[in-house]
Amino acid sequence: MSEAPDWIDRILATDPRDVGCDEARASLHVYADLVAAGADPAERYPGVATHLAACDACAEALRGLSALIGDEALRTAQGTTPPERESGRT
Amino acid sequence: MDDDSSSWLSALRGKGTRCRAAQAQLHELLLKAGLTEAYRRGPAAHITGPELDDLAHQAADDAMVSLLGKLDSFRGESRFTTWAYRFVVLEISSKLGRHFWRRPTVALDNEDWDRLPERHGACDPLATAQHQDLIAAVQRAVETLTERQRLLFVATVVNGIPIDAMSARCGATPGAIYKTVFDARRKIRAYLTTNGYLEGEARMDRVPSAQTGAQFT
Asked: What is the pTM of this model?
Protein backbone atom coordinates (compact mmCIF):
# COMPACT_ATOMS: atom_id res chain seq x y z
CA MET A 1 0.00 0.00 0.00
CA SER A 2 1.53 3.33 -1.08
CA GLU A 3 1.28 6.49 0.98
CA ALA A 4 -2.07 8.25 0.65
CA PRO A 5 -1.95 11.40 -1.48
CA ASP A 6 -2.49 14.75 0.23
CA TRP A 7 -5.83 15.33 -1.47
CA ILE A 8 -7.38 12.25 0.11
CA ASP A 9 -6.26 13.44 3.55
CA ARG A 10 -7.79 16.82 2.85
CA ILE A 11 -11.19 15.48 1.80
CA LEU A 12 -11.35 13.03 4.69
CA ALA A 13 -9.93 15.20 7.48
CA THR A 14 -11.94 14.94 10.68
CA ASP A 15 -10.45 16.51 13.78
CA PRO A 16 -12.39 15.68 16.97
CA ARG A 17 -11.59 19.15 18.34
CA ASP A 18 -13.60 20.72 15.49
CA VAL A 19 -16.59 22.54 17.02
CA GLY A 20 -18.56 22.83 13.79
CA CYS A 21 -20.06 25.82 12.00
CA ASP A 22 -22.71 26.85 14.49
CA GLU A 23 -20.42 27.16 17.50
CA ALA A 24 -17.63 28.74 15.45
CA ARG A 25 -20.00 31.36 14.03
CA ALA A 26 -21.41 32.07 17.48
CA SER A 27 -17.97 33.12 18.74
CA LEU A 28 -16.69 34.70 15.54
CA HIS A 29 -16.87 38.27 16.91
CA VAL A 30 -14.72 37.42 19.93
CA TYR A 31 -12.28 35.52 17.73
CA ALA A 32 -12.04 38.42 15.26
CA ASP A 33 -11.41 40.99 17.98
CA LEU A 34 -8.63 38.80 19.41
CA VAL A 35 -7.05 38.58 15.95
CA ALA A 36 -7.31 42.36 15.55
CA ALA A 37 -5.70 42.85 18.96
CA GLY A 38 -2.74 40.71 17.94
CA ALA A 39 -3.63 37.98 20.44
CA ASP A 40 -3.66 34.27 19.68
CA PRO A 41 -7.33 33.29 19.51
CA ALA A 42 -6.43 29.64 18.86
CA GLU A 43 -5.12 29.47 22.41
CA ARG A 44 -8.48 30.46 23.86
CA TYR A 45 -10.61 28.78 21.19
CA PRO A 46 -8.72 25.73 19.88
CA GLY A 47 -11.89 24.07 18.62
CA VAL A 48 -12.87 27.17 16.67
CA ALA A 49 -9.36 27.48 15.21
CA THR A 50 -9.52 23.84 14.12
CA HIS A 51 -12.87 24.44 12.48
CA LEU A 52 -11.75 27.59 10.69
CA ALA A 53 -8.83 25.66 9.21
CA ALA A 54 -11.24 23.06 7.83
CA CYS A 55 -14.30 25.06 6.80
CA ASP A 56 -14.00 27.48 3.88
CA ALA A 57 -17.39 29.07 4.57
CA CYS A 58 -16.60 30.01 8.16
CA ALA A 59 -13.07 31.10 7.29
CA GLU A 60 -14.55 33.40 4.66
CA ALA A 61 -16.93 34.87 7.25
CA LEU A 62 -13.96 35.54 9.54
CA ARG A 63 -12.09 37.24 6.69
CA GLY A 64 -15.12 39.46 6.09
CA LEU A 65 -15.48 40.33 9.75
CA SER A 66 -11.78 41.09 10.11
CA ALA A 67 -11.90 43.30 7.03
CA LEU A 68 -14.80 45.27 8.51
CA ILE A 69 -12.99 45.73 11.82
CA GLY A 70 -9.95 47.02 9.98
CA ASP A 71 -11.89 49.18 7.53
CA GLU A 72 -10.67 52.70 8.14
CA ALA A 73 -13.70 54.27 6.44
CA LEU A 74 -16.08 52.36 8.68
CA ARG A 75 -14.00 53.02 11.78
CA THR A 76 -14.09 56.76 11.29
CA ALA A 77 -17.65 56.95 10.02
CA GLN A 78 -20.03 58.90 12.19
CA GLY A 79 -22.20 55.81 12.45
CA THR A 80 -19.63 53.94 14.50
CA THR A 81 -19.70 56.59 17.21
CA PRO A 82 -21.84 55.26 20.04
CA PRO A 83 -24.84 57.34 20.99
CA GLU A 84 -24.20 60.13 23.43
CA ARG A 85 -24.11 58.88 26.97
CA GLU A 86 -26.71 59.89 29.50
CA SER A 87 -25.47 62.47 31.95
CA GLY A 88 -23.82 60.91 34.96
CA ARG A 89 -22.51 57.88 33.06
CA THR A 90 -18.82 57.32 32.92
CA MET B 1 -17.37 45.77 28.85
CA ASP B 2 -15.78 48.80 27.17
CA ASP B 3 -17.41 52.21 27.45
CA ASP B 4 -18.48 52.46 23.82
CA SER B 5 -20.21 49.09 23.97
CA SER B 6 -21.95 50.05 27.22
CA SER B 7 -23.13 53.22 25.60
CA TRP B 8 -24.59 51.36 22.63
CA LEU B 9 -26.39 48.91 24.90
CA SER B 10 -27.72 51.64 27.16
CA ALA B 11 -29.10 53.64 24.24
CA LEU B 12 -30.65 50.65 22.46
CA ARG B 13 -32.31 49.42 25.65
CA GLY B 14 -33.65 52.86 26.40
CA LYS B 15 -36.81 54.56 25.27
CA GLY B 16 -37.76 57.61 23.26
CA THR B 17 -35.62 59.73 21.01
CA ARG B 18 -32.28 58.44 22.28
CA CYS B 19 -33.26 54.86 21.47
CA ARG B 20 -34.61 55.82 18.07
CA ALA B 21 -31.45 57.77 17.29
CA ALA B 22 -29.31 54.82 18.35
CA GLN B 23 -31.33 52.45 16.17
CA ALA B 24 -30.97 54.76 13.18
CA GLN B 25 -27.23 55.04 13.80
CA LEU B 26 -26.90 51.30 14.14
CA HIS B 27 -28.81 50.64 10.95
CA GLU B 28 -26.59 53.09 9.09
CA LEU B 29 -23.56 51.22 10.40
CA LEU B 30 -24.98 47.82 9.46
CA LEU B 31 -25.79 49.05 5.97
CA LYS B 32 -22.26 50.36 5.43
CA ALA B 33 -20.87 47.06 6.67
CA GLY B 34 -23.31 45.13 4.49
CA LEU B 35 -22.33 47.06 1.38
CA THR B 36 -18.64 46.56 2.10
CA GLU B 37 -19.06 42.82 2.63
CA ALA B 38 -21.43 42.36 -0.33
CA TYR B 39 -19.01 44.09 -2.69
CA ARG B 40 -16.08 42.09 -1.27
CA ARG B 41 -17.80 38.76 -1.91
CA GLY B 42 -19.90 39.73 -4.92
CA PRO B 43 -17.42 38.98 -7.73
CA ALA B 44 -16.76 35.41 -6.56
CA ALA B 45 -20.52 34.86 -6.36
CA HIS B 46 -21.04 36.32 -9.86
CA ILE B 47 -23.20 39.17 -8.54
CA THR B 48 -22.66 42.79 -9.46
CA GLY B 49 -24.23 46.25 -9.34
CA PRO B 50 -27.76 46.92 -8.11
CA GLU B 51 -28.24 43.31 -7.08
CA LEU B 52 -25.40 43.69 -4.58
CA ASP B 53 -26.97 46.87 -3.23
CA ASP B 54 -30.29 45.04 -2.75
CA LEU B 55 -28.51 42.17 -1.05
CA ALA B 56 -26.71 44.55 1.32
CA HIS B 57 -29.92 46.41 2.21
CA GLN B 58 -31.76 43.16 2.92
CA ALA B 59 -28.84 41.88 4.98
CA ALA B 60 -28.71 45.10 7.01
CA ASP B 61 -32.47 45.01 7.65
CA ASP B 62 -32.44 41.35 8.68
CA ALA B 63 -29.31 41.79 10.78
CA MET B 64 -30.94 44.71 12.58
CA VAL B 65 -34.04 42.69 13.50
CA SER B 66 -31.97 39.70 14.57
CA LEU B 67 -29.53 41.81 16.59
CA LEU B 68 -32.23 43.73 18.47
CA GLY B 69 -33.88 40.44 19.38
CA LYS B 70 -30.62 39.17 20.85
CA LEU B 71 -29.45 42.32 22.60
CA ASP B 72 -29.58 40.62 26.00
CA SER B 73 -27.16 37.95 24.81
CA PHE B 74 -24.35 40.49 24.24
CA ARG B 75 -21.96 39.98 27.14
CA GLY B 76 -19.20 42.37 26.16
CA GLU B 77 -16.73 39.67 25.12
CA SER B 78 -16.01 41.74 22.02
CA ARG B 79 -16.65 45.33 21.01
CA PHE B 80 -20.33 45.94 20.36
CA THR B 81 -19.63 47.00 16.77
CA THR B 82 -17.76 43.74 16.06
CA TRP B 83 -20.71 41.80 17.48
CA ALA B 84 -23.03 43.83 15.26
CA TYR B 85 -20.89 43.30 12.15
CA ARG B 86 -21.06 39.54 12.71
CA PHE B 87 -24.84 39.62 12.12
CA VAL B 88 -24.35 41.34 8.77
CA VAL B 89 -21.50 39.09 7.65
CA LEU B 90 -23.54 35.96 8.40
CA GLU B 91 -26.64 37.42 6.73
CA ILE B 92 -24.58 38.09 3.60
CA SER B 93 -23.26 34.50 3.68
CA SER B 94 -26.77 33.14 4.01
CA LYS B 95 -28.14 35.31 1.20
CA LEU B 96 -25.25 34.40 -1.10
CA GLY B 97 -26.07 30.77 -0.35
CA ARG B 98 -29.63 31.29 -1.54
CA HIS B 99 -28.44 33.25 -4.56
CA PHE B 100 -26.12 30.39 -5.56
CA TRP B 101 -29.03 28.38 -6.97
CA ARG B 102 -30.00 31.10 -9.40
CA ARG B 103 -26.96 30.30 -11.51
CA PRO B 104 -28.09 28.28 -14.53
CA THR B 105 -25.10 25.94 -14.52
CA VAL B 106 -25.65 24.63 -11.03
CA ALA B 107 -27.04 21.12 -10.71
CA LEU B 108 -26.87 18.66 -7.87
CA ASP B 109 -26.76 15.57 -10.06
CA ASN B 110 -23.56 16.36 -11.98
CA GLU B 111 -20.94 14.46 -10.03
CA ASP B 112 -17.50 15.81 -10.87
CA TRP B 113 -15.38 12.89 -9.64
CA ASP B 114 -12.58 13.27 -12.16
CA ARG B 115 -11.67 16.71 -10.82
CA LEU B 116 -11.72 15.61 -7.17
CA PRO B 117 -7.91 15.51 -6.70
CA GLU B 118 -7.44 18.80 -8.57
CA ARG B 119 -10.21 20.48 -6.60
CA HIS B 120 -8.43 19.51 -3.39
CA GLY B 121 -4.95 20.61 -4.26
CA ALA B 122 -3.42 17.95 -6.52
CA CYS B 123 -1.73 20.18 -9.09
CA ASP B 124 -0.36 17.47 -11.37
CA PRO B 125 -2.99 16.21 -13.85
CA LEU B 126 -1.07 12.94 -13.88
CA ALA B 127 -2.02 12.51 -10.25
CA THR B 128 -5.64 12.11 -11.26
CA ALA B 129 -4.78 9.22 -13.54
CA GLN B 130 -2.51 7.68 -10.92
CA HIS B 131 -5.23 7.80 -8.33
CA GLN B 132 -8.13 6.49 -10.39
CA ASP B 133 -8.25 3.40 -8.17
CA LEU B 134 -8.54 5.57 -5.10
CA ILE B 135 -11.25 7.72 -6.66
CA ALA B 136 -13.18 4.56 -7.56
CA ALA B 137 -12.76 3.29 -4.00
CA VAL B 138 -14.08 6.58 -2.60
CA GLN B 139 -17.07 6.23 -4.96
CA ARG B 140 -17.74 2.75 -3.61
CA ALA B 141 -17.41 4.05 -0.05
CA VAL B 142 -19.89 6.83 -0.82
CA GLU B 143 -22.42 4.17 -1.83
CA THR B 144 -22.32 2.85 1.75
CA LEU B 145 -23.39 6.22 3.19
CA THR B 146 -26.92 7.22 4.08
CA GLU B 147 -28.74 9.05 1.32
CA ARG B 148 -28.35 12.39 3.11
CA GLN B 149 -24.65 11.83 3.81
CA ARG B 150 -24.09 10.89 0.18
CA LEU B 151 -25.98 13.92 -1.14
CA LEU B 152 -24.12 16.36 1.09
CA PHE B 153 -20.66 14.81 0.69
CA VAL B 154 -20.93 14.78 -3.10
CA ALA B 155 -22.34 18.31 -3.20
CA THR B 156 -19.82 19.97 -0.90
CA VAL B 157 -16.66 17.88 -1.33
CA VAL B 158 -16.90 16.47 -4.86
CA ASN B 159 -18.73 19.34 -6.55
CA GLY B 160 -17.51 22.17 -4.30
CA ILE B 161 -20.94 23.64 -3.55
CA PRO B 162 -20.64 26.03 -0.56
CA ILE B 163 -22.08 24.91 2.77
CA ASP B 164 -24.30 28.00 2.93
CA ALA B 165 -25.78 27.10 -0.46
CA MET B 166 -26.59 23.57 0.75
CA SER B 167 -27.94 25.05 3.97
CA ALA B 168 -30.35 27.16 1.92
CA ARG B 169 -31.24 24.22 -0.30
CA CYS B 170 -31.88 21.77 2.54
CA GLY B 171 -33.37 24.16 5.07
CA ALA B 172 -30.79 23.06 7.66
CA THR B 173 -28.23 25.10 9.55
CA PRO B 174 -24.68 25.22 8.17
CA GLY B 175 -23.66 23.36 11.34
CA ALA B 176 -26.04 20.50 10.60
CA ILE B 177 -24.74 20.26 7.03
CA TYR B 178 -21.13 20.30 8.23
CA LYS B 179 -21.81 17.62 10.85
CA THR B 180 -23.40 15.30 8.28
CA VAL B 181 -20.40 15.71 5.95
CA PHE B 182 -18.04 15.23 8.93
CA ASP B 183 -19.70 11.88 9.68
CA ALA B 184 -19.54 10.94 6.00
CA ARG B 185 -15.79 11.64 5.91
CA ARG B 186 -15.23 9.35 8.89
CA LYS B 187 -17.21 6.52 7.35
CA ILE B 188 -15.39 6.84 4.02
CA ARG B 189 -11.99 6.82 5.74
CA ALA B 190 -12.99 3.74 7.73
CA TYR B 191 -14.11 2.00 4.52
CA LEU B 192 -10.85 2.85 2.72
CA THR B 193 -8.78 1.69 5.67
CA THR B 194 -10.69 -1.56 6.09
CA ASN B 195 -10.29 -2.31 2.39
CA GLY B 196 -6.56 -1.61 2.32
CA TYR B 197 -6.50 1.72 0.50
CA LEU B 198 -5.28 3.69 3.52
CA GLU B 199 -2.94 2.80 6.32
CA GLY B 200 -3.97 2.63 9.95
CA GLU B 201 -6.82 1.14 11.88
CA ALA B 202 -10.36 1.68 10.75
CA ARG B 203 -11.22 3.66 13.84
CA MET B 204 -14.72 4.99 14.25
CA ASP B 205 -14.24 6.37 17.74
CA ARG B 206 -13.22 9.91 16.78
CA VAL B 207 -16.75 11.06 17.30
CA PRO B 208 -17.15 14.74 18.10
CA SER B 209 -18.98 15.03 21.36
CA ALA B 210 -19.30 17.20 24.41
CA GLN B 211 -16.84 14.85 26.15
CA THR B 212 -14.07 15.55 23.62
CA GLY B 213 -14.74 19.25 23.59
CA ALA B 214 -16.23 19.22 20.11
CA GLN B 215 -19.86 20.21 20.02
CA PHE B 216 -22.18 20.45 17.11
CA THR B 217 -25.60 21.98 17.16
From this structure: 0.85
